[in-house]
Automatic annotation (TrEMBL):
Matching InterPro entries: Beta-grasp_dom_sf, TGS, TGS-like
SUPFAM superfamilies to which the protein is assigned, alphabetical: TGS-like (SSF81271)
CDD domains for the chain: TGS_ThrRS
A family per Pfam: TGS
Protein name per UniProt: TGS domain-containing protein
Ranges for domain TGS: 1-36
Gene3D superfamilies to which the protein is assigned, alphabetical: 3.10.20.30
């Protein structure tokens, strides 16, 4: 399966599998972010 790489404002990168939802990404960053 393909993957996508997200580059954050601080320059760090995180790889996610294709089909990941924005909510899944928010959960990976911070549970409190996902709740907003």
């Amino acid at each position: 399966m393909s993957s996508i790489t997200i580059t954050f404002p601080d320059g760090s990168q995180k790889e996610f599998s294709a089909g990941v939802t924005p909510l899944d990404i928010a959960r990976e960053i911070s549970n409190s972010l996902a709740k907003k």
